[in-house]
Amino acid sequence: MSGTSDISEPKTAGGAWLVVAASAIGAVVAAFDVVNVGNGIAFSFGAWLVFASSLLVMCAALILGLHLALSGAARGTLAVLLLLGILGTGVAAYFLTAWILLVAMGVALVGWLIHVVADPSPLD
Hints:
Layout: H1 14-35, H2 45-65, H3 72-95, H4 99-117
Helix pairs in contact: 1-2, 1-4, 2-3, 3-4
């Protein structure tokens, strides 16, 4: 009998799924901000931009969370682009005074950090 256990922990990308959830909430908030005429940013370029960028962040996090077949370099590149998307959307949300979206991007940033530091590699 060997000293290792036959029971393995499931591979899950919890950090990436947190980014998916936060960016989905951000996309809903941004969509509301686009059409809410009482907020001062309705139908503006910036409102549309943060809506689109929230959706792109969600798509990139889905790719990482589903462990789709990507090389290590492609996963690293996607993780860096995801970080830039989160930060860019957060900065735009700050300038648009879309505070709920800014908080959502803060949560997404925490999820990104968890993904980079603690999530298992799909090859583990």
